[in-house]
Design goal:
The chain is an alpha/beta fold. It has a single domain, classed as Alpha-Beta Barrel (TIM Barrel). Helix content is 36%, strand content 18%. Strands 3-4-5-8-9-10-11-12 form an 8-stranded parallel beta barrel, surrounded by 6 helices. A hairpin with a 6-residue loop joins β1 and β2. α1 crosses α2, α4 crosses α5 and α5 packs parallel to α6. The N and C termini lie far apart (39 Å).
Protein backbone atom coordinates (compact mmCIF):
# COMPACT_ATOMS: atom_id res chain seq x y z
CA UNK A 1 0.00 0.00 0.00
CA UNK A 2 1.32 3.39 -0.96
CA UNK A 3 1.67 6.17 1.55
CA UNK A 4 -1.66 7.88 2.12
CA UNK A 5 -1.72 11.37 0.68
CA UNK A 6 -4.25 14.14 0.28
CA UNK A 7 -7.16 14.65 -2.09
CA UNK A 8 -7.41 17.28 -4.80
CA UNK A 9 -10.29 19.74 -4.94
CA UNK A 10 -12.86 20.45 -7.64
CA UNK A 11 -15.55 23.03 -8.16
CA UNK A 12 -18.92 21.50 -7.30
CA UNK A 13 -20.77 22.48 -10.44
CA UNK A 14 -20.01 25.36 -12.78
CA UNK A 15 -20.33 28.10 -10.18
CA UNK A 16 -20.20 26.04 -7.01
CA UNK A 17 -17.89 25.84 -4.01
CA UNK A 18 -14.51 24.13 -3.88
CA UNK A 19 -14.84 20.62 -2.45
CA UNK A 20 -12.78 17.45 -2.31
CA UNK A 21 -12.90 15.20 -5.41
CA UNK A 22 -13.69 12.29 -3.07
CA UNK A 23 -16.70 12.51 -0.76
CA UNK A 24 -17.25 10.63 2.50
CA UNK A 25 -20.66 8.98 2.86
CA UNK A 26 -21.52 8.75 6.54
CA UNK A 27 -24.77 6.77 6.30
CA UNK A 28 -23.31 3.39 7.24
CA UNK A 29 -22.02 4.81 10.51
CA UNK A 30 -25.60 4.62 11.78
CA UNK A 31 -28.32 2.00 11.82
CA UNK A 32 -30.60 2.95 8.92
CA UNK A 33 -32.41 -0.26 8.07
CA UNK A 34 -32.73 -1.54 11.63
CA UNK A 35 -29.34 -3.26 11.73
CA UNK A 36 -26.68 -2.88 14.44
CA UNK A 37 -24.91 0.44 14.83
CA UNK A 38 -21.18 0.93 14.36
CA UNK A 39 -18.47 1.87 16.86
CA UNK A 40 -19.10 5.59 17.38
CA UNK A 41 -15.53 6.38 18.41
CA UNK A 42 -14.21 4.70 15.28
CA UNK A 43 -16.74 6.54 13.13
CA UNK A 44 -15.77 9.92 14.58
CA UNK A 45 -12.10 9.08 14.13
CA UNK A 46 -12.78 8.12 10.51
CA UNK A 47 -14.44 11.46 9.77
CA UNK A 48 -11.62 13.37 11.43
CA UNK A 49 -8.95 11.37 9.58
CA UNK A 50 -10.78 12.07 6.32
CA UNK A 51 -10.71 15.79 7.12
CA UNK A 52 -6.99 15.51 7.90
CA UNK A 53 -6.40 14.23 4.36
CA UNK A 54 -8.46 16.87 2.62
CA UNK A 55 -11.76 15.02 2.27
CA UNK A 56 -14.05 17.85 3.27
CA UNK A 57 -17.33 16.69 1.66
CA UNK A 58 -19.35 14.88 4.35
CA UNK A 59 -22.69 13.44 3.29
CA UNK A 60 -25.45 12.66 5.79
CA UNK A 61 -29.24 12.62 6.05
CA UNK A 62 -31.57 13.69 8.84
CA UNK A 63 -33.25 10.25 8.68
CA UNK A 64 -30.03 8.22 8.94
CA UNK A 65 -30.45 6.50 12.28
CA UNK A 66 -33.31 8.88 13.17
CA UNK A 67 -30.90 11.77 13.65
CA UNK A 68 -28.05 9.69 15.06
CA UNK A 69 -25.89 10.27 11.98
CA UNK A 70 -26.14 14.04 12.21
CA UNK A 71 -25.25 13.92 15.90
CA UNK A 72 -22.21 11.81 14.99
CA UNK A 73 -21.08 14.19 12.26
CA UNK A 74 -21.66 17.12 14.58
CA UNK A 75 -19.43 15.50 17.20
CA UNK A 76 -16.69 14.86 14.62
CA UNK A 77 -16.62 18.40 13.22
CA UNK A 78 -16.83 20.22 16.53
CA UNK A 79 -14.07 22.85 16.51
CA UNK A 80 -13.37 21.92 12.84
CA UNK A 81 -16.33 23.54 11.12
CA UNK A 82 -14.16 25.33 8.55
CA UNK A 83 -12.63 22.02 7.46
CA UNK A 84 -15.96 20.42 6.56
CA UNK A 85 -18.51 20.86 3.78
CA UNK A 86 -21.77 19.39 5.10
CA UNK A 87 -24.29 17.83 2.71
CA UNK A 88 -27.66 16.89 4.23
CA UNK A 89 -30.59 15.03 2.67
CA UNK A 90 -34.11 15.46 4.05
CA UNK A 91 -37.61 14.17 3.44
CA UNK A 92 -37.27 10.45 4.12
CA UNK A 93 -39.55 9.06 6.82
CA UNK A 94 -38.57 5.87 8.64
CA UNK A 95 -40.44 4.04 11.38
CA UNK A 96 -39.14 0.99 13.25
CA UNK A 97 -36.25 0.81 10.82
CA UNK A 98 -38.54 0.71 7.77
CA UNK A 99 -39.00 3.26 5.01
CA UNK A 100 -42.59 4.54 5.11
CA UNK A 101 -42.50 7.43 2.65
CA UNK A 102 -41.61 11.06 2.02
CA UNK A 103 -42.68 14.32 3.62
CA UNK A 104 -41.74 17.26 1.40
CA UNK A 105 -44.25 19.83 2.63
CA UNK A 106 -42.72 23.28 3.19
CA UNK A 107 -43.75 23.22 6.87
CA UNK A 108 -42.01 19.86 7.29
CA UNK A 109 -38.83 21.07 5.57
CA UNK A 110 -38.62 24.02 7.95
CA UNK A 111 -39.04 21.62 10.85
CA UNK A 112 -36.42 19.21 9.48
CA UNK A 113 -33.74 21.85 9.08
CA UNK A 114 -34.33 23.28 12.54
CA UNK A 115 -33.55 19.90 14.07
CA UNK A 116 -30.63 19.25 11.70
CA UNK A 117 -28.87 22.48 12.62
CA UNK A 118 -29.13 21.63 16.32
CA UNK A 119 -27.92 18.04 15.88
CA UNK A 120 -25.01 19.12 13.69
CA UNK A 121 -24.15 22.01 16.01
CA UNK A 122 -23.84 24.47 13.11
CA UNK A 123 -25.58 27.62 11.88
CA UNK A 124 -25.62 26.86 8.16
CA UNK A 125 -25.84 23.65 6.12
CA UNK A 126 -23.58 23.81 3.07
CA UNK A 127 -25.67 21.65 0.72
CA UNK A 128 -29.32 20.84 1.47
CA UNK A 129 -31.36 18.52 -0.69
CA UNK A 130 -34.60 16.54 -0.83
CA UNK A 131 -33.65 12.85 -0.86
CA UNK A 132 -36.14 12.28 -3.71
CA UNK A 133 -39.00 14.04 -5.46
CA UNK A 134 -42.25 12.09 -5.82
CA UNK A 135 -44.81 14.66 -7.03
CA UNK A 136 -46.62 14.55 -3.67
CA UNK A 137 -45.74 18.24 -3.32
CA UNK A 138 -45.14 20.56 -6.31
CA UNK A 139 -41.43 20.83 -7.15
CA UNK A 140 -41.80 24.61 -7.00
CA UNK A 141 -42.87 24.37 -3.33
CA UNK A 142 -40.07 22.00 -2.32
CA UNK A 143 -37.29 23.88 -4.09
CA UNK A 144 -38.82 27.24 -3.25
CA UNK A 145 -38.70 26.41 0.44
CA UNK A 146 -35.00 25.56 0.24
CA UNK A 147 -34.45 28.77 -1.72
CA UNK A 148 -36.07 30.65 1.18
CA UNK A 149 -33.68 28.89 3.57
CA UNK A 150 -30.77 30.07 1.40
CA UNK A 151 -32.07 33.64 1.70
CA UNK A 152 -32.32 33.22 5.47
CA UNK A 153 -28.71 32.04 5.69
CA UNK A 154 -29.59 28.56 6.95
CA UNK A 155 -28.44 26.92 3.69
CA UNK A 156 -25.59 27.80 1.31
CA UNK A 157 -26.36 25.69 -1.75
CA UNK A 158 -29.27 23.66 -3.11
CA UNK A 159 -28.85 20.04 -4.11
CA UNK A 160 -31.18 17.36 -5.42
CA UNK A 161 -30.99 13.58 -5.16
CA UNK A 162 -32.27 10.67 -7.23
CA UNK A 163 -34.32 12.75 -9.66
CA UNK A 164 -35.15 12.46 -13.35
CA UNK A 165 -33.76 14.79 -16.01
CA UNK A 166 -37.12 16.58 -16.21
CA UNK A 167 -37.23 17.05 -12.44
CA UNK A 168 -33.66 18.36 -12.51
CA UNK A 169 -34.54 20.95 -15.13
CA UNK A 170 -37.65 22.01 -13.23
CA UNK A 171 -35.81 22.34 -9.93
CA UNK A 172 -33.01 24.32 -11.58
CA UNK A 173 -35.58 26.71 -13.08
CA UNK A 174 -36.86 27.54 -9.59
CA UNK A 175 -33.45 27.99 -7.94
CA UNK A 176 -29.93 27.16 -9.21
CA UNK A 177 -29.06 23.55 -8.38
CA UNK A 178 -25.43 23.12 -7.38
CA UNK A 179 -25.22 19.33 -7.14
CA UNK A 180 -27.05 16.19 -8.19
CA UNK A 181 -26.60 13.14 -5.95
CA UNK A 182 -27.21 9.92 -7.86
CA UNK A 183 -26.15 6.27 -7.99
CA UNK A 184 -23.50 5.59 -10.64
CA UNK A 185 -21.15 2.69 -11.29
CA UNK A 186 -19.91 0.32 -13.96
CA UNK A 187 -22.97 -1.78 -13.15
CA UNK A 188 -25.47 1.11 -13.15
CA UNK A 189 -25.02 3.39 -16.13
CA UNK A 190 -28.61 4.26 -16.98
CA UNK A 191 -28.05 7.93 -16.05
CA UNK A 192 -25.64 8.33 -18.98
CA UNK A 193 -28.54 8.52 -21.46
CA UNK A 194 -30.31 11.62 -20.20
CA UNK A 195 -29.55 12.67 -16.64
CA UNK A 196 -25.77 13.12 -16.87
CA UNK A 197 -25.95 15.15 -20.11
CA UNK A 198 -28.63 17.35 -18.53
CA UNK A 199 -26.50 17.98 -15.44
CA UNK A 200 -23.50 18.84 -17.62
CA UNK A 201 -25.59 21.17 -19.79
CA UNK A 202 -26.88 23.02 -16.73
CA UNK A 203 -23.46 23.18 -15.05
CA UNK A 204 -24.51 20.99 -12.12
CA UNK A 205 -21.95 18.88 -10.27
CA UNK A 206 -22.57 15.15 -9.80
CA UNK A 207 -22.11 13.39 -6.47
CA UNK A 208 -22.03 9.71 -7.41
CA UNK A 209 -22.79 7.09 -4.76
CA UNK A 210 -22.97 3.26 -4.89
CA UNK A 211 -19.72 3.09 -6.89
CA UNK A 212 -19.34 -0.63 -6.10
CA UNK A 213 -23.01 -1.34 -6.87
CA UNK A 214 -23.92 -2.38 -3.33
CA UNK A 215 -20.88 -4.66 -3.09
CA UNK A 216 -21.27 -6.40 -6.46
CA UNK A 217 -18.06 -4.86 -7.83
CA UNK A 218 -15.89 -5.49 -4.77
CA UNK A 219 -14.91 -8.95 -5.96
CA UNK A 220 -15.73 -10.29 -2.52
CA UNK A 221 -19.41 -11.19 -3.02
CA UNK A 222 -20.29 -14.87 -3.38
CA UNK A 223 -23.52 -16.65 -4.33
CA UNK A 224 -25.84 -17.25 -2.64
CA UNK A 225 -25.89 -14.35 -0.20
CA UNK A 226 -26.53 -14.87 3.49
CA UNK A 227 -30.24 -14.94 4.29
CA UNK A 228 -30.06 -11.69 6.28
CA UNK A 229 -28.19 -9.65 3.64
CA UNK A 230 -30.25 -6.62 2.62
CA UNK A 231 -29.22 -7.10 -1.02
CA UNK A 232 -31.57 -10.09 -1.18
CA UNK A 233 -34.43 -7.62 -1.65
CA UNK A 234 -33.20 -6.82 -5.17
CA UNK A 235 -33.47 -9.19 -8.15
CA UNK A 236 -29.88 -8.42 -9.19
CA UNK A 237 -28.65 -10.39 -6.19
CA UNK A 238 -31.05 -13.32 -6.46
CA UNK A 239 -30.53 -16.82 -7.88
CA UNK A 240 -29.27 -17.12 -11.45
CA UNK A 241 -29.03 -13.32 -11.79
CA UNK A 242 -26.37 -13.11 -9.10
CA UNK A 243 -24.39 -16.00 -10.57
CA UNK A 244 -24.41 -14.36 -14.01
CA UNK A 245 -23.51 -10.96 -12.60
CA UNK A 246 -20.60 -12.32 -10.57
CA UNK A 247 -19.25 -13.92 -13.74
CA UNK A 248 -19.22 -10.45 -15.34
CA UNK A 249 -17.21 -9.12 -12.39
CA UNK A 250 -14.39 -11.60 -13.11
CA UNK A 251 -13.07 -9.24 -15.80
CA UNK A 252 -12.80 -6.45 -13.23
CA UNK A 253 -11.06 -8.79 -10.78
CA UNK A 254 -8.54 -9.85 -13.43
CA UNK A 255 -7.72 -6.25 -14.38
CA UNK A 256 -7.41 -5.27 -10.73
CA UNK A 257 -4.93 -8.07 -10.09
CA UNK A 258 -2.87 -7.09 -13.13
CA UNK A 259 -2.76 -3.44 -12.03
CA UNK A 260 -2.04 -4.24 -8.38
CA UNK A 261 -5.28 -2.89 -6.92
CA UNK A 262 -8.56 -4.27 -5.61
CA UNK A 263 -11.72 -4.51 -7.75
CA UNK A 264 -13.40 -1.98 -5.44
CA UNK A 265 -10.58 0.49 -6.05
CA UNK A 266 -10.96 0.10 -9.80
CA UNK A 267 -14.73 0.57 -9.51
CA UNK A 268 -14.22 3.86 -7.66
CA UNK A 269 -11.47 4.90 -10.07
CA UNK A 270 -13.75 4.31 -13.06
CA UNK A 271 -16.38 6.67 -11.63
CA UNK A 272 -13.68 9.21 -10.78
CA UNK A 273 -12.36 9.09 -14.36
CA UNK A 274 -15.74 10.02 -15.86
CA UNK A 275 -15.05 13.74 -15.45
CA UNK A 276 -13.95 16.62 -13.27
CA UNK A 277 -17.61 17.36 -12.59
CA UNK A 278 -18.18 13.93 -10.98
CA UNK A 279 -17.33 13.16 -7.34
CA UNK A 280 -17.25 9.55 -6.12
CA UNK A 281 -19.11 9.43 -2.78
CA UNK A 282 -17.76 6.46 -0.84
CA UNK A 283 -19.28 5.14 2.38
CA UNK A 284 -16.77 4.36 5.11
CA UNK A 285 -17.05 3.72 8.82
CA UNK A 286 -13.47 2.59 9.58
CA UNK A 287 -10.19 4.45 9.30
CA UNK A 288 -8.62 1.38 7.70
CA UNK A 289 -10.70 1.99 4.57
CA UNK A 290 -9.40 5.50 3.96
CA UNK A 291 -5.95 4.70 2.50
CA UNK A 292 -7.32 2.32 -0.15
CA UNK A 293 -10.10 4.69 -1.18
CA UNK A 294 -7.76 7.67 -1.40
CA UNK A 295 -5.35 5.54 -3.42
CA UNK A 296 -8.20 4.65 -5.79
CA UNK A 297 -8.38 8.32 -6.77
CA UNK A 298 -4.83 8.11 -8.16
CA UNK A 299 -5.50 5.17 -10.50
CA UNK A 300 -5.13 5.90 -14.21
CA UNK A 301 -6.56 3.68 -16.95
CA UNK A 302 -5.03 3.22 -20.37
CA UNK A 303 -7.36 3.83 -23.30
CA UNK A 304 -7.41 0.07 -23.88
CA UNK A 305 -8.37 -0.65 -20.26
CA UNK A 306 -11.09 1.99 -20.28
CA UNK A 307 -12.55 0.64 -23.51
CA UNK A 308 -12.47 -2.89 -22.11
CA UNK A 309 -14.37 -1.92 -18.96
CA UNK A 310 -16.84 0.34 -20.72
CA UNK A 311 -17.76 -2.29 -23.31
CA UNK A 312 -17.81 -5.25 -20.90
CA UNK A 313 -20.09 -3.37 -18.51
CA UNK A 314 -22.25 -1.80 -21.19
CA UNK A 315 -25.69 -0.64 -20.00
CA UNK A 316 -27.82 -3.72 -19.37
CA UNK A 317 -24.87 -6.09 -18.98
CA UNK A 318 -25.71 -6.55 -15.31
CA UNK A 319 -29.09 -8.27 -15.05
CA UNK A 320 -31.77 -7.63 -12.46
CA UNK A 321 -32.84 -4.46 -10.72
CA UNK A 322 -31.89 -2.58 -7.57
CA UNK A 323 -33.44 0.36 -5.73
CA UNK A 324 -31.61 2.63 -8.20
CA UNK A 325 -34.06 1.60 -10.94
CA UNK A 326 -37.45 2.97 -10.00
Amino acid sequence: MKTITGITNISLGKNGPLVSKLGLGCMRMSSVWGGPGKDENESVATIQMALDHGINFLNTGDFYGNGHNELLVGKAIKDRRKDAFISVKFGGIFYNGQWVGLDLRPIAIKNFISYSLVRLGIDTIDLYQPCRLDNSVPVEDVIGTVADLVQEGKVRYLGVSEVTADQLRKAHSVHPVTALEIGYSLADRQIETDLLPTAKELGIGVVAFANTAEGLLTGEMKAPLAADDYQNHFSRFQGANLIKNLEKVEVLKKMAKEKGYTPAQLAIAWVNSQGDDIMPLVSMSKRSRLPENIQAMEIVFTAEEMNALTSHFSPGAIVGSTYLQR
